[in-house]
Write a structure and sequence with these properties.
Blueprint lengths: L1 E7 L3 H7 L6 E4 L7 H9 L2 E4 L7 E2 L7 H6 L2 H11 L3 E3 L4 E4 L4 H13 L3 E3 L6 E4 L4 E5 L2 E10 L14 H8 L4 E7 L3 E2 L12 E7 L4 E8 L3 E3 L1 H7 L8 E4 L7 H14 L5 H5 L5 H11 L10 H12 L1 E3 L3 E2 L7 E6 L17 E3 L7 E2 L4 H18 L2
Parallel strand pairs: 1-2, 1-10, 2-7, 10-20
Antiparallel strand pairs: 3-6, 4-21, 5-6, 8-9, 9-10, 11-19, 12-15, 12-18, 13-14, 13-16, 14-15, 16-17
The structure holds flavin-adenine dinucleotide (FAD).
């Protein structure tokens, strides 16, 4: 039999697309279970969208490409879907929406909706090759060939190879004449030479972090291998090998000027107080002790001139570090880059090179910030392709 649509990838994008295509739809996935990344995301509660989703929350070579799909399927469209299914949700912080209960509720919802429209989901099935014979797509699988008029690539990016992530969509895109924008790990912890931050491992504090391209204000987490936490994951998507990032460690203390005023006042009241002890009132004491040799923090408050106190506050507000690298695809939440958007129609996600061929979700060169934006892109691009296919 010839299917109307074959979707490769039963992840976030593939499953939502299957709820839209109608006709005879087959979803293939080489994994044992559908929607594995949904299941593990957001600590098992899935940060499924962000209520403040804006085009500026996405990276990609074309800064406008994603606008069309996002304008036709926004955060509230997905929320409405959950409300209708009785799946409760809440805002955690910064507009990030999570399930109250379990992320698997979303997987179950999408699978049952896809099946209700007649879609067939075939798991444990890898695709060995794809060709277009001029009329239909012919896919070779270990269970024999399957054919379809429309083919959707929803196989995600390279992040977390242990979970079966592959560069499959990029290979197929190249086969059909598409360009691939350089891929790199995104939303990923920074690494530093062995053990640099080991003494601080587990310590977290609110910071501002920036480089020439972006700026974020969230929490930083010290780890055995380096730096992590939402602030670092965010800036990692804007970072290149060899570059440094600047961190304002005083961001949680209202602002750096207040710290200076407080230190000056305290110098007057209790000049014999140790500088590091005093700084420990504002920042984690462990961090102050760790930074003391690097920033030359020593002596009593009375020993510090106004200029010196200002220098100290500036140094804490502009702590510059140069990561040696990132943890790579092993732990990256997303893959930056991917199928170049110049080869895709932004309204339908269809290939400009091959009629009936679509690319959706993470494999496309559209990457969201941390905070539910990547699922939102998966839903929106899947809706765009699925509705376009249904209308064929
Ligand atoms: P995926 O969900 O990765 O689905 C791709 C599917 O294709 C998989 O089922 C895979 O098995 C299948 N596949 C791959 N290659 C082949 C092949 N060759 N043949 C057959 N099948 C194949 N984003 C958020 O917005 N909020 C979060 O809370 C969040 N948390 C995350 C936590 C972690 C640990 C990770 C790794 C990512 C997280 N993300 C989050 C990112 C989000 O999971 C992805 O952006 C999203 O899943 C992309 O959807 P997708 O459908 O394009 O790809």
């Amino acid at each position: 039999m010839i299917y109307d649509t074959i979707i490769i990838g039963a992840g976030a994008a593939g499953l939502l697309c299957a709820t839209r295509t109608g006709g005879r739809t087959l979803v293939l996935d080489h994994a044992k279970r559908p929607g594995e990344k949904i299941r593990i995301s957001g600590g098992g509660r899935c940060n499924f969208t962000n209520m403040y989703c804006e085009p500026g929350n996405f990276l990609g070579q074309n800064r406008h490409f994603h606008k069309s799909a996002l304008s036709r399927f926004g955060p509230w469209d997905f929320v409405a879907k959950l409300d209708q299914a009785g799946i409760n949700w809440h805002e955690k912080t910064l507009g990030q929406l999570f399930c109250d209960d379990k992320a698997t509720q979303i997987v179950e919802l999408l699978v049952s909706e896809a099946k209700a429209t007649g879609a067939e989901i075939r798991l444990n099935c890898s695709v060995q090759s794809i060709a277009h014979d001029g009329q239909v797509f012919v896919l070779t699988t270990p269970h024999g060939p399957v054919q379809a008029h429309a083919l959707v690539l929803a196989t995600g990016g390279k992040s977390i190879p242990k979970m079966g992530a592959t560069g499959f969509a990029y290979d197929i895109a190249r086969q059909f004449g598409h360009e691939i924008t350089e891929t790199r790990p995104g939303l990923v912890p920074f690494t530093f030479p062995e053990g640099r931050f080991a003494p601080l491992s587990g310590l977290s504090l609110p910071v501002r972090v920036w480089n020439a391209r972006a700026r974020f204000e969230e929490a930083l987490l010290f780890t055995h291998r380096g730096l992590s936490g939402p602030a670092i994951l965010q800036i990692s998507s804007y970072w290149r090998e060899g570059e440094s990032v600047t961190i304002d460690l005083t961001a949680g203390i209202s602002d750096g000027r207040d710290l200076l005023t407080a230190l000056r006042d305290q110098r007057q009241r209790a000049g014999r107080r140790n500088l590091t002890t005093e700084l420990g009132q504002f920042l984690p004491a462990k961090l102050v002790d760790f930074l003391a040799p690097e920033l030359g923090l020593s002596g009593n408050l009375a020993d510090q001139s106004d200029t010196r106190l200002r220098e100290i506050c500036d140094a804490l507000a502009n702590w510059t570090v140069t990561p040696s690298g990132t943890e790579g695809y092993r732990t990256a939440e997303v893959t930056l880059g991917g199928v170049a958007t110049s080869g895709l129609d932004s309204k339908t996600m269809m290939s400009k090179h091959q009629d009936g061929l679509y690319f959706i979700g993470e494999c496309v060169d559209v990457t969201g910030w941390l905070g539910g934006f990547n699922f939102q892109w998966a839903w929106a691009s899947a809706h765009a392709a699925g509705t376009a296919i249904a209308a064929r």
